Amino acid sequence: MKNILITGGAGFIGSHVVRLFVNKYPESTIVNFDNLTYAGNLLNLTDIENKKNYHFVKGDIVDGEAVFALFEKYGFDQVVHLAAESHVDRSIANPMAFVHTNVIGTVNLLNAAKHFWKHGNNNRFYHISTDEVYGSLGEEGLFTEETPYDPRSPYSASKASSDHFVRAYHHTFGLPVVLSNCSNNYGANQFPEKLIPLFINNIIHKKPLPVYGKGENVRDWLYVIDHAEAIDLILRKGTTGETYNIGGHNEWKNIDLIRLLCTIMDEKLGRAPGTSEGLITYVKDRAGHDLRYAIDAGKVESELGWKPTVTFEEGLRKTADWYLSNAEWLRQVTSGDYLQYYRKQYEER
Ligand code: NAD
Ligand code: TYD
Q1: Ligand 1 pocket at CB < 6 A
Q2: Where are the domains of the chain?
Q3: Half-sphere exposure of 150 toward its Cβ, with a 13 Å CA cutoff?
């Protein structure tokens, strides 16, 4: 029986982790600490909100006193830290928000863990990170756990910084940490600003699909529930002080992925083949756009026995179905000028 803090549990990946843990560990207390930014939404958790072992606390990881008070109240054994500003385009528009949440917020959590964890046996601080810290690949090669850090966007620079702080607290203070760096996730509950949910929403509303540059950038896509399963495994069985890369062996050029998504959406919406592809609009490239990310997930597979279970086409179909059957969720999160304040810079260029 453990007390587990999950930060950012109302967000995209966090909500799947909270659901998995609440259902799988009825004897543990799962506390979701989240300040409900634009990306956090309690509608993501309505199916488990009344479970006895689940507690939601609204709060900001940048508020050091609130974080200490939370640790004092619940006496956590373990922390699974997902709270973050997570979108590259927003980090280009407003880097400082990423410094606050991703760097200062993470150090606040590390300080609290260091203060309250005196004995350490059962304790574990798990930082969820991204493969973007490794920079950009050319046509060949994969990111391994040994790839040198080379972050190139304000988002990845802030995540690289937080990764370094987590490792520094391990080496300097002996804090029992573990880290994972994962590739691009997709699935239900993702705020419609990232590629897949943005394009699903735009297709539904017959709005243009803004493809950055020539659409030739490559991402390695993983279904979010496969990521949540990896997080559960690494929390329980990962080696203290180690890092695990997580990815789906599933590289797609953006334009090929978009064409597949268009085909699936036409089919599901009963529209003539080619309708959604007609919405594709090439726009000016993202500043500093990383060409290619791809993960070698050999370590988590061979050491911990994890492997992805959902094929890309199956996962995309499930994701499309989720957005189509959650029209009210989509309407609520996209009401008003939901992308205006940071997307304007792209539209104006
Ligand atoms: P998200 O943007 O969907 O959710 C982030 C959550 O954190 C939201 O619920 C938000 O309210 C909360 N949050 C933000 N700032 C906070 C603060 N100051 N205090 C408390 N809560 C705060 O993000 P996501 O896509 O679910 O990503 C979760 C984590 O996984 C992040 O650390 C991200 O870097 C990492 N990651 C994401 C991906 C991906 O493809 N989405 C891939 C690899 C790693
Ligand atoms: P995104 O979902 O923002 O994830 P990340 O930048 O963290 O990989 O973008 C995925 C890819 O899709 C990336 O190469 C940028 C591209 N993209 C577009 O072409 N148009 C868009 O409107 C968005 C949001 C992304």
Answers
A1: 7-8, 10-14, 34-37, 39-40, 60-62, 82-86, 101, 105, 128-130, 159, 182, 184-185, 191
A2: 3-189+222-249+292-310
A3: 12
Cβ contact 183:294 at 8 Å:
yes
d(CA 104, CA 116): 18
**In the block, which residue shows the tokens 């620079």?**
157
Digit-coded pLDDT (tens) for 71-97: 999 999 999 999 999 999 999 999 999
Measured in Å, residue 258 CA sits from the centre of ligand 2 at 11
- Specify the fold of 3-189+222-249+292-310: Rossmann fold (3.40.50)
Distance (Å, rounded) from C-alpha 221 to C-alpha 131?
11
Q: What confidence tens digit (pLDDT) does each residue in 147-204 have?
A: 999 999 999 999 999 999 999 999 999 999 999 999 999 999 999 999 999 999 999 9
* Tens of pLDDT, residues 309-322: 999 999 999 999 99
